[in-house]
Please model this.
Amino acid sequence: MARKGPTVREFQKRFPDEESCLNHLMRTRYGERLTCMGCHKEATFYRVKARRCFTCEHCGYQVYPTAGTPFEKTRTSLRDWFYVMFLFCASRNGVAAKEVQRQLGVTYKTAWRMCNLIRKYMGYVDGDYPIGGPGKTLEADEMFVGGHDPHKDGKPADDKAVVFGIIERGGDVVTRHVQSRDAGTIVPHILKLAKPGSKIHTDEASNFRSLTERHGFDHETVDHSAKEYVRGDVHTNNIEAFWANVKRGINGTYVWVSKKHLQSYLHEFEYRHNLRQQPALMFELLLQAFPKVRVG
Ligand SMILES: [Zn+2]
Model:
């Protein structure tokens, strides 16, 4: 893929210091000129030295662009926040809090909180919209995350988390951390996430029988248990490639992910997948979301 996101060098050039980050926040929230809340005139706001604020050219009214954002009450510099966001967008397999701790010289707790909030914003920006539709093919599948290997450590295997995912070929992916892989749990998610008229491919029939019988989807399966992986254009290779990416991140970068936070991690991987054709937007959209909405 020829398109690339910003490099570290480009990041450093654009945000060399705290000042440049504060200016970015001001512009993102309020634009170049705004109607002053003090004198109600159209005004340019100038930077007030030594404070995180800008002041009205007419009446001196002050605006704090960090007010009401996640940046307001942290001692972490804006530049550190921006940099960690950049790392999340530049990585393929995620960013470990340990690594953030090491690079920024902050505590592990601070590093983890930053990462956690960034993941939540990625989930917010990405959203969970229905995918597919007439003429489109979706692949649906489940995977297991974490838990013990019953053969190795003798503990029961049922503490594994189940993740359901559905992907549009050449398009977006949506995932859900679910309680089980029964049809009763999975099918309602498919009905919510797959637009009517979609073709749906899965790797086993029994769980999904109602898709054709009751819900009118064109549903095809390959039988992995019989070592059938592709039949004509029927396969689940795309969702499996996505799972492989998530597993590389969770096993390689994060090592262990609690069920409580699993969905946020999944959102992070969805975010990068769904914006893979516009890598420059990954960082841009995240930067814009922080001052505009409150998430988490
Ligand atoms: Zn004013």
Observations:
- The chain has eleven helices and nine strands.
- The first helix runs from residue 8 to 14.
